[in-house]
Amino acid sequence: MHFRTAAQPDFETLDALIVPAYRDGRVPGSLAGEIRQLAEWVAAESGPQKVYTAITHLRQGQAGGGATRLVLVAAGRSEEYDAARARQVVSAGVRALWRSTTTRLGVVLDTDELEAGAASQAAVEGVIYGCWRPTTHRTGEDELLPPPLEDVQLISPEEAAEQIERGVAVGNAVNWARSMANEPANLLTPSRLAERTRELAESSGLVCEVLDEEQCRGLGMNTFLAVARGSDEPARFIVLRHHGREGEGYDLALVGKGITFDSGGISIKPADDMHVMKYDMSGASAVIAASTAVAQLGLPLNLLAVAPCTENLPGGHATKPGDVVTSLSGKTVEVINTDAEGRLVLIDAVTYAEREGAGRIVDVATLTGAIRIALGSHYTGLFGRPEGFVAAVQRAGEAAGERLWRMPLADEYRDEMKSEVADLRNSAGRYGSSSKGAAFIEAGVSEEAEWAHLDIAGSAWVDEDRPFSPKGPQGSPVRTLVALAAAIAARR
Predict the structure, then answer these.
(1) Which pLDDT band, with edges at 50, 70 and 90, does 38 fall under?
(2) Sheet of strand 67-74, all strands in order from the earlier edge strand to the far edge
(3) Would you name the residues annotated as active-site residues?
């Protein structure tokens, strides 16, 4: 798929044209009155902040020939039009073309409401997201297929080559993360995820290292290995390195929870919706994908990515409630609930990242059902310290069009995670469990390090189709992680 910029839509070279339409009927660019009338109809039919599509055919003028399919997408109020809305509008427009044979697509950008570079990146990402479907394992014919796009024209008065390049890298990274999170657990074991990561790293210029269980045991990653004990599938600890500048150390470390299937272990989950627990490695897929985008864009910083990957199953050797294990940091942990396993793998992983020379760490995890109850699927929970770094992560989310919500992390939560028989316990009841889970992970990070925790249990997977995205994995927070890395690199 090739992206380029054009000053005006040339209907002779387009099979379809996506145009945003605001609630007042206004459309960007110098389009014909016929389109404006249709735009007014779309705007009148659309509810507030919802996305609708209307498809018609626009005949060529005196040039004759075929017809260009026009896709008008309601864009809400013009004053609310930002990169996130632009991305959604374009993605919805592409999804409206799923049954078509469109190969040449035009996308009208509103550079009055949005800076041309931001609009271009958002449009590119929207096109790529709109082409993703979770149909890898279907063997029969499926009429509902994405259009076979070859050439995409961004209708804008300004060139934005750098932003287009970033949009392609980020868009492909998000879709890769979505694809991995949607893979069934029998086909995406920890070993297979490590193989996929090696392939991706080789094509992106990342240095990849995969530690096996014996190597992890030698380092002292006993809380990570405690989760792996119940499974016959061997655990894998994936490490990626991007060296974008000279010198030692890492400007940023990304740590992602990689539970390729979570049954809850001995503290087994209810059967309802357990099949969705294949997505419990969404944190790992996000940090791997984001690292790929960082490397492809050649961002001038040193980046470390760590993904501890295992299954959590109730086998004969599984860790039992009440067991005590020693983490990589040296702190002992009483395992109260084996379904609170994400924090067990992460506490070792954040310690490893800091020991490798990272002074800033962001961990990403589908950690708690409580965050989904609190925020639904529309926000990611954000925890961390110090204030300046957490604010930087939130700004990166805003710039990337991903919504992060600050959650409390106080000494009262830290105190509740103390154990009577060990230094820490991995569970302290349901109430405030998202904050308490974050406090547990924090115990693996020194006071000197800057650290943030993103709980994506709600935002990484949605249970219903959206106008701009099918239900299932969403690839969050890949965009935020890339934006944060770019911001850090820019400050160097």
Answers:
(1) confident
(2) 2-6, 151-155, 104-108, 16-21, 67-74, 53-59
(3) 269, 343
